[in-house]
Amino acid sequence: MAVTSKALARTAAATSSTTLYTVPSATTAVVTNIVIANTGSSAYTWTMTFDSVSIGTSVSIAANSTTVIDMKQVLAATKIIAGSASNTAVTFHISGIEVS
Questions:
Q1: Beta bridge partners of 67
Q2: How many structural domains compose the chain?
Q3: Domain of 73, in residue numbers
């Protein structure tokens, strides 16, 4: 059994829901940390789902700020993390491990 720590997603948010990460087949992923950053000069909102279940919906993030979410969330093979924001100044950084 291989256990690999990795960045699952590092991307600027799209303004409509898009796939940020898909768990590979024959693999289990554990999301350990999500960092959401707003580099813009205005407050924006973000939305994220794990396998279509809401982690946060239209959550406000202040201008030039960062939100950190520590967690241990297990996702089975082929499950999807999706997200969006009201502006592309919002970025998602998702870290975790893959077990295969």
A1: 36
A2: 1
A3: 3-99
**Cα(21)–Cα(94) distance, integer angstroms:** 9
* Tokens (6 digits) for 5: 């720590």
Residues 6+ apart with CB under 8 A from 18: 82, 83, 84
Partners of residue 48 on adjacent β-strands: 56, 83
**98 DSSP 8-state letter:** E
State the pLDDT confidence band at 46, using cuts at 50, 70 and 90: very high
Whole-number Å distance between alpha carbons of 28 and 55: 19
Give the end-to-end CA distance of the chain in Å, rounded to a whole number. 6
Domain at 73, CATH number: 2.60.120.340
In this structure, what DSSP letter does residue 78 have?
T
Residue 41 confidence (pLDDT) above 90: yes
